[in-house]
Amino acid sequence: MKRIVVLGGGESGVGAALLAKEKGFEVFLSDAGNLKQDKKDVLSHADIPFEEGGHTEDRVLIADEVVKSPGIPDTAPLIRKLDTLRIPVIDELEFAARFTKGKLLAVTGTNGKTTTVKLFYHILQKANLDVGLAGNVGQSLARQILEGDRDYWVLEVSSFQLDRIYETRFHVAILLNITPDHLDRYNYEFDRYVDSKFRITKSQTEEDHFIYSADSKAVVDELQNRDLKAKQYSFSAMGYQEGLNAWLENEKLIININGELEMSIQELALQGKHNASNGMASGIASRILEIRKEIIRDSLSDFQNVEHRLEHVTTVSGVEYINDSKATNINSTWYALESMQSQTVWIVGGVDKGNDYSELLDLVKDRVKAIIALGKDNSRIHAAFDNVVPVIHDVTDMREAVGLAYRESRKGEAVLLSPACASFDLFESYEDRGNQFKEYVRAL
Question: Is the pTM of this model over 0.85?
């Protein structure tokens, strides 16, 4: 009997363990940290042995195959040992994909993945296709396949997941953009990060489809070095150019595949050029699947935004409060500030991943009237903006941040939580950070 060892007891790990058990494998799950009680209950109920608080190497190194949590870096000593012993180490998506007959539709990119995935899923649901949503969002693919296979799976795929995907074939692959992020996982080499993102095309054939942004220099440059087998499609928010399949022109979004779909950008449920790009990517993918233009148009008009991504919370005394807690890097926050139409009090800060704030200077000069720096160490924020923004407050809890933002804002302005940083100095997660923001805003 084949021995499967699962490293990491989060959503993807537990899902992989359950699927492996169902398929008749000998399974063992090991987590270096503490497992949540609900995960332990699920594993115990399924009669899957597990350990927490550390890895017992003797039990891990006898595996025929290891399914690794994407959060565990390839440089971890145990992963290096497994690689040296040539024991296959794969991602949960790679394992789960073996057990579906459905077509895999994958989205990656530094920013916009979650919005695009949910928008694409929304369109396919509206078209009454048998479709599931998995990957880096919601329940794991493995657990959902266990509950029932689908004809189509829309997957959000991170670079960490792609690093351990070798044979999985994506019928449609969308690459939204590539900008520097998570470089600590790639030895601070941008080329390695780019290569990781392009792994989404690795097993594609002539019958598959690759959609990319013509606005992303890193993507366009890398395409010159690659001979991809899949059919290629591109989109741009910068206007028409030859060869594009979707573009913005004269305040209109145009998708040209099997006939032209045209709609005013004012009709889009999600505003801002970045969201128009997300709409074009999902629209192209939907036309490839022969979804009717009317369904795509309706879906782009009535889509409800992702929580914690430019989420309108409420308006208090004429001031709009916007929760963009999911913006954990500079590029995401650039998009948020670019979409602001009024003077803004900006709540920023957290665990800085080596941010270059200079990219935001022009937008900050133009749109930000005050900064609330929310973090244990705000020195880099001060270095970047002390001479740019007249008011900068330092805070270490969300209640104080919201209170100060309320006092600094006036009718017709906005308060934007878009941290450009990870959340782990003061919060459990970006969701916790966003939820606290919403709680204190609604209490004003």
Answer: no
13 is in an annotated binding site: no
Residue extents of the structural domains in the chain: 3-87, 100-302, 311-442
Query: Pairing between strand 252-256 and 246-249?
Result: antiparallel
CATH code of the domain occupying 100-302:
3.40.1190.10
**The listed CATH number (3.30.9.10, 3.40.50.880, 3.40.50.720, 3.40.50.2300) that belongs to domain 3-87:** 3.40.50.720
Structural element, H or E, at residue 294: helix 293-302
Per-residue model confidence as pLDDT tens digits over 61-92: 999 999 999 989 999 999 999 999 999 999 99
155-203 pLDDT per residue, tens: 999 989 999 999 999 999 999 988 876 666 777 778 788 888 999 999 9
Q: Is 114 annotated as a binding residue?
A: yes
Question: Would you say 75 is a known binding-site residue?
Answer: no
Residue 116 annotated as lining a ligand binding site? no
**Contact by Cβ (8 Å): 176, 116:** yes
283 is in an annotated binding site: no
From residue 53, alpha-carbon distances to 70, 238, 430 in Å are 18, 51, 24
